[in-house]
Amino acid sequence: MASRRALATLGPLVHRRAAPALKPTSLCPRCQSRRQSVSQRPGSDRVHFPGAVNSSFTSALSFTRPSEKDAMPTFRILDQDGAIVDQSQNHPETSKEELLKMYKDMVTVSIMDIIMFDAQRQGRISFYMVSAGEEGIAVGSASSLSPNDPIFAQYRETGIFQYRGFTPSDFMAQLFATANDPGRGRNMPVHYGSTKYKVHTISSPLATQIPQAAGAAYAVKVQNQQNPTDEQRVVACYFGEGAASEGDFHAALNIAATRACPVVFICRNNGYAISTPTLEQYRGDGIASRGVGYGIDTLRVDGNDILAVREATRQARALALSDGGKPVLLEAMSYRVSHHSTSDDSFAYRAKLEVEDWKRRDNPIVRLRKYLESCGLWDDDSEKVLRSEARKAVLEAYRKADKEKHPPLRNMLTDVYEEMTEEQVEQLGKMRGVVERFPDEYDVSGFEEGVEGLRMK
Asked: pLDDT per residue over 365-385, tens digit each?
């Protein structure tokens, strides 16, 4: 009775605040088919239950054993010597300009990695992560995405930023947290982000970007439907095989599959989740088998073959836009030839000989260089010029950023709300008072405006 009286009281209020009716939107054929009811016909030879709509009946009791199934194959175009594996396959030609851009981007990233890893060891920056051995995954996939496709990256996707237009100065502004950093110095080093290049800011907590990408892809799906004459976009999401052990991964793939979201999930399987090798992470057939389990079109690709990654991403993007939108999973197989980060010593859990063997035997930069040389597009002189110019550009940006000041200290509190609250203004004043009373304890000369940076403008 009390509940009825409460509802009667709330009735007029709810009526007054009711949202206007939404206009009906057309559902894609795939969504419509999923919403149809499922019935079991008499005498049917297969299951027509909602949970498994096309499973044949059998009188033989036989468990499906993973050990009896072949592992999913790995797609490649180039072998370890940079030669095309199957000349009969008619893959789209990649222009000379595109091939050289991809190669130069990978080399530039690898040179910056070496310089900035050493810079961290010298105390110039607090933290760094390299992408050695995985440059081909980032650059190759970025080359097949539209510049307007939103990207949710992890922390080894430096090549994406490089490919989309980041300059050495852009990287250094973030790494040194200078006043030119769009993130205003609030993030750890290598946590890049760019509104201009449609890349969401990288976040430290593992796997959080995966469900965010699924949600963004649903928004993109709606936008694609509302604007069919505009460029149709997808969302690209990157993560490592270690992140696939997080619950966020499973939630994201299930959401993307059931809501038919146009998202390309790209997993970098580099063999290690910090110090945990893949053999201790899971017993199944890598990460690709999980995509099949969630009803997602899946492909495993050789991450050391940048041409294979490029082609796989191109077709994955087209597939993600088909049938009104659908998720696609790519598992790129690579090997992490460096430490997990500057906070890690990988030789504590793996043999140095193993790492050196991978460096010498196979990596994406060497493989593409061999291919370019076989096509007459590259030689030793070109290599010397590229490495010299790239190193010079990175070092110039490095030295400049090392001398620049950090953003004003008020940026610690701004942008949380549209306007700073009374409490924030009060806190800013108290911080300024402490710094002014103890100037020897708080040296703020490295920040723009010094102590005045703790005043409201």
From this structure: 999 999 999 999 999 999 999
Query: Is there a contact between 253 and 290 (Cβ–Cβ < 8 Å)?
Result: yes
Angle at 283 between CA 280 and CA 288, to 5 degrees: 110
What's the burial of 215, exposed, middle or buried (CB within 10 Å: 0-12/13-18/19+)? middle
Answer yes or no: are the C-beta atoms of 66 and 344 closer than 8 Å: no
Tens digit of pLDDT for each residue in 36-91?
566 777 888 887 776 676 788 889 998 988 888 899 999 999 999 999 999 999 88
Question: What digits encode the pLDDT tens for the residues 211-250?
Answer: 999 999 999 999 999 999 999 999 999 999 999 999 999 9
Of 241, 288, 275, 433, nearest to 347 by C-alpha is 275
Domains and their CATH numbers in the chain = 70-402 (3.40.50.970), 409-454 (no CATH)
| DSSP string over 9-43 | HHHHHHHHHPPPPPPP-PPPHHHHHHHS-----TT
Q: How far is CA 333 from CA 207, 243, 363, in A?
A: 19, 15, 11
At 44 the pLDDT is 83
Q: Is the pTM of this model over 0.70?
A: yes
Output b/e per residue, 7-30; b: 16+ Cβ within 10 A.
eeeeeeeeeeeeeeeeeeeeebee
Matching residue, tokens 């609030």: 186
Tens digit of pLDDT for each residue in 155-178?
999 999 999 999 999 999 999 999
CA distances from 339 to 106, 114, 281, 335, 336 (A): 18, 12, 18, 11, 8
Contact at 8 Å (CB) between 127 and 119?
no
Residue by residue, DSSP assigns 359-420 as HHH--HHHHHHHHHHHTTS--HHHHHHHHHHHHHHHHHHHHHHHHSPBPPGGGGTTTSSSS-
- List, in sequence order, every residue forming a beta bridge with 273; answer none if it has no partner: 276
Share of the chain above pLDDT 90, in %: 81
In the DSSP assignment, the letter for residue 447 is B
Task: Specify the higher pLDDT residue, 165 or 32.
Answer: 165
252 Cβ neighbours under 8 A, 6+ residues apart: 210, 211, 213, 214, 237, 265
